[in-house]
TrEMBL record, chain A:
Keywords: Amino-acid transport, Cell membrane, Membrane, Transmembrane, Transmembrane helix, Transport. It is a multi-pass membrane protein. It is found in: Cell membrane. It comes from Fervidicoccus fontis. This is Branched-chain amino acid ABC transporter permease. Coiled coil: none annotated. GO terms for biological process: amino acid transport. Its main location: membrane. It holds the Pfam family BPD_transp_2. Belongs to the binding-protein-dependent transport system permease family. LivHM subfamily. GO terms for molecular function: transmembrane transporter activity. The chain crosses the membrane at residues 15-38, 45-62, 68-87, 99-119, 139-162, 191-214, 226-252, 259-280. GO terms for cellular component: plasma membrane. CDD domains: TM_PBP1_LivH_like.
Length: 289, 324, 243
């Protein structure tokens, strides 16, 4: 029998995790929405960024939260580089070709990481958020609370960006209707490059957050890619709120799945939900696609 | 056939070429058991890629779930032998049928609700993870072994040469199935679905039904291959439901060129052999070199040669025709 | 007058707030070439999509040879004898032209060789040059594409063929050839045609009867010369709202 305390604990952990997942998926939703590019290397970019975090932490004793400040602009530029090198050539090509190229990129990143760092998971030796509060029966880890808060703040900022700035509005109108946006004189090539850069920069932020409590190993990206796509599928392109709700569902499902079944079956729960959503709500739960 | 024209004589010729190639390989390996096992694995892997060609190449559905079917078929066949004493020579058909049943259960709603492209790819990738997680719960982390018996009714031999021959027969059967599909109504229908599903619907094709047919044939073949895979691997566990192997099958299919049997075989044999070579030579120092290679080739093919090896074969063919 | 081959009754289709089809009732008579015209966004393509089952109508009924076909899946509707072509061609790029047409023939002839024979016959009926049959869909010209689209639809042996803007993008000489081809399809193959067209020259020269749509409604029908003098039609085309 599962105690109410445990249920509560797992639900709260699931919510924190879910908020973080939505941040991870946000970049993907943005890229897919604006430029219709299917990126399967999303999680692998996160994994590479996480190794950066680990390296700076071990070699330079820099806290992951500080590394984020460096990583965000760096990965923005890396993102733009990837866009011009690999994404632009396959823009508008069949989905299969896009998937092939980005899966290829993912494999390259994964195995470079494997060659350099081996399969052994790595964690940062120290993070300023390495403590926890007790709230009655509930334990709240500062790191998890921190990433949840940062996720919310970032998504709020992103929301403002998309609604208040010229580039943000251009992104939104391109998501809604590409042809009209082009007619309105939006330079789609630059817009795409910036969007891709932004999406990748968001991943860099996520990776720093992840490393405040998580571990990195070369295959970390695969599960993050899949989870992000699940969230995008559920959220539809219904905007940031859709992504957040879907992220929460995935986070809580994973957390409760590992409680009620076994930890090794937790992803099965998430993916079964994914099946059901795709089958019965093919346009996502929270908006159109 | 893309490369050799369409006449049935040419197809017979092509089969002959494949058969001779398959027959020559063991002579070259000269009784080295390790290489024979490798050759058998590579041939079995090629068969999987050729089977993938039915759903991925002809029907154009990016299936990333190959090892869901390989796993189900292989484990059912093995369990039938271990628990019920049913010899695998019969059991593989039950294994194939079990995979096919899974495919029907998954395929009907999937195609009914119009899930395609990236969503189909994700769904099938998720399928492998679901099977992996659930079978881990059911089977535990243990490795299971087949009974030590050997013989034709068990499709299991200590000699890798014979296992290689069995894999070759499976490859040829899979090629034959592809050829039969390609030359019949179903093949034309599947290809038109790949090209443009809506236009296909508008010439009277029940696209859902035909996609389901493709998925059924593909899953049946993979289910049958599952047991041979287990014999070559010497054991089985929940780890058979492996995402990256499933991905590799699709990768080889794409690199070979959609709808091209010979492209698929060439890409599977070359890449898989190279991959195994890297793994055995550098596996301890630079792990993952084989996958790195797949990744690089995939990016290059995607950007510069989207029609894969088949596209290259085609071009050579055209150039030769012009010369004549 | 004989029975209608196709009839729609109060057909409605909306997308969000837009009523793309707003209570449309039309009849298509056996053997005729009906012109369907109207300014951009009038709902012509949407009407085709409803008839062929691509879209499910939100209201109203569709009858084909006196049988109700509303809500049937597309492939069943096609099997009953309706064919269509596309405003923007949808070629099977990686298949040979012959194979693409033969795929259409397979609906009536399951044997591949037989289907190919039929495909060749249709190709020569439409005047497609022999040497393009082995070419792939991505290697031919626009005019040829349009003919292949037509051939592919004809190969399913329709009684009724819905043709969406087949004239768009063609050169004047090609247009004349296309007009002849359509007439030939109608007279020699006994296929009833509904022709959506912006090019008035094409409509006027082949249709004895024209239906005009505007903002999802039928605003006029009759002989081409009558319709083109109808004040409502003129206003619709000039973009001035009738007072
Ligand atoms: N799939 C769709 N989703 C949303 N709106 C649609 C869709 N298809 C058509 N519409 C809208 O329905 C209306 C009618 O469009 P339709 O394409 O039928 O016009 P048309 O008469 O064929 O125009 P044209 O001459 O430009 O081809 C338009 O306002 C169009 O924007
Ligand atoms: Mg139109």
């Amino acid at each position: 029998m599962i105690s109410p305390e445990l249920l509560l604990q797992n639900s709260v952990d699931g919510i924190f995790l879910g908020l973080f997942y939505s941040l991870v998926a946000m970049g993907l939703a943005l890229i897919f929405g604006v430029m219709d590019i299917i990126n399967f290397a999303h999680g692998d970019l996160l994994m590479i960024a996480a190794y950066f975090v680990w390296l700076t932490s071990v070699d330079l004793s820099v806290d992951p939260t500080v590394t984020a400040l460096l990583l965000i602009p760096l990965f923005f530029i890396i993102g733009i580089g990837i866009f011009f090198g690999m994404i632009q050539p396959v823009l508008g090509k069949e989905p299969l070709i896009q998937i092939a190229v980005t899966v290829g990129l993912g494999l390259i990143l994964q195995n470079i990481a494997l060659a350099m760092f081996k399969a052994q998971p790595k964690a940062v030796p120290y993070s300023i958020f390495n403590f926890s509060y007790s709230l009655g029966p509930l334990t709240i880890y500062a790191s998890k609370l921190f990433i949840a808060v940062i996720s919310i703040v970032t998504m709020y900022a992103l929301n403002v960006f998309l609604n208040k700035t010229y580039i943000g509005l251009a992104m939104r109108s391109t998501t809604d209707n590409r042809e009209v946006a082009q007619l309105m004189g939006i330079n789609t090539r630059m817009l795409y490059a910036v969007t891709f850069g932004l999406g990748v920069a968001l991943i860099a932020l996520s990776s720093s957050l992840w490393m405040t409590f998580g571990q990195v190993q070369p295959y970390l990206g695969t599960s993050f890619s899949l989870i992000s796509w699940v969230i995008v599928a559920m959220g539809g392109l219904g905007g940031i709120t859709g992504v957040v709700y879907s992220g929460l569902i995935v986070g809580v499902a994973e957390s409760l799945g590992s409680l009620f079944l076994t930890p090794s079956a937790r992803m099965a729960v998430v993916y079964i939900i994914f099946f059901l959503v795709l089958w019965f709500r093919p346009r996502g739960l929270f908006g159109r696609r | 056939m893309v490369a050799f024209g369409t006449g049935s004589k040419k197809i017979a010729l092509e089969l002959l070429v494949i058969a001779i190639l398959l027959a020559v390989i063991p002579l070259v390996l000269m009784g080295n058991a390790y290489y024979e096992l490798l050759a058998a694995t590579v041939v079995l892997f090629s068969s999987m890629v050729v089977a993938w060609n039915i759903i991925g190449g002809y029907a154009g559905q990016l299936d990333l779930g190959a090892f869901a079917y390989v796993g189900v078929g292989g484990i059912i066949t093995s369990e039938l032998w271990i628990k019920a004493g049913i010899p695998p020579l019969l059991g593989i058909f039950a294994g194939g049928a079990a995979s096919l049943l899974i495919a029907v259960i998954i395929g009907i709603p999937t195609f009914r609700f119009g899930i395609k492209e990236v969503w189909y790819a994700l769904l099938t990738a998720a399928l492998v993870v679901i099977f992996n997680n659930l079978s881990r719960v059911l089977m535990g982390p243990t490795d299971y072994y087949l009974p030590p018996k050997t013989g034709i009714i068990y499709l299991k031999f200590n000699s890798y040469e014979i296992m290689y021959a069995i894999a070759s027969v499976i490859l040829i059967l899979t090629v034959l199935a592809n050829l039969a599909i390609e030359r019949s109504k179903i093949g034309y229908y599947l290809k038109s679905i790949r090209e443009d599903e809506l236009a296909a619907e508008m010439i009277g094709i029940d696209t859902r039904r035909y996609k389901l047919y493709a998925l059924m044939i593909y899953s049946f073949f993979l289910g049958v291959m599952g047991y041979i895979y287990i014999v070559l691997a010497a054991s089985f566990s929940y780890r058979m439901f492996d995402s990256s192997s499933s991905l590799s099958i699709a990768i080889m299919g794409i690199i070979g060129g959609l709808g091209s049997i010979e492209g698929g075989i060439v890409s599977a044999m070359v890449l898989r052999s190279l991959g195994e070579y890297f793994r055995s030579s550098f596996g301890s120092t630079v792990p993952g070199l084989d996958l790195l290679l797949y990744g690089i080739v995939l990016v290059i093919v995607g950007i510069f040669q989207p029609e894969g090896i088949a596209g290259i074969i085609n071009r050579i063919n055209k150039a030769m025709k012009k010369k004549r | 007058m004989s029975e209608a081959l196709l009839e729609t009754r109060d057909l409605v289709k909306h997308f969000g707030g837009i009523k793309a089809i707003d209570s449309v009732s039309i009849k298509v008579m056996e053997g005729e070439i009906l012109g369907l015209i109207g300014p951009n966004g009038a709902g012509k393509t949407t009407l085709f999509n409803c008839i062929t089952g691509t879209y499910k109508p939100d209201g109203g009924k569709i009858f084909f040879r006196q049988k109700e076909i509303t809500g049937l899946p597309s492939h069943e509707i096609i099997k009953l004898g309706i064919g269509r072509t596309w405003q923007i061609v949808r070629p099977f790029k990686k298949m040979s032209v012959l194979d693409a047409i033969a795929t259409g023939s397979l609906l009536r002839y399951s044997d591949v060789e037989k289907a190919k024979e039929k495909a060749k016959e249709i190709a020569s009926f439409l005047g497609l040059p022999k040497d393009i049959l082995e070419k792939r869909g991505e290697e031919i010209t626009l005019m040829q594409h349009k003919l292949v689209d037509l051939a592919r639809a004809l190969a399913t042996e329709p009684k009724l063929l819905l043709i969406d803007e087949v004239g768009a993008g063609l050169r004047p000489s090609e247009l004349s050839a296309m007009i002849d081809t359509l007439q030939k399809i109608n007279s020699e193959r006994k296929v009833t045609l509904v022709v959506v067209e912006h090019i008035m020259r094409l409509v006027m020269s082949i249709s004895k009867r024209v239906i005009v749509m505007h903002e999802g409604r039928v605003i006029a029908q009759g002989k081409p010369e009558e319709v083109s003098n109808d004040p409502q039609v003129i206003q619709a085309y000039l973009g001035i709202k009738p007072i």
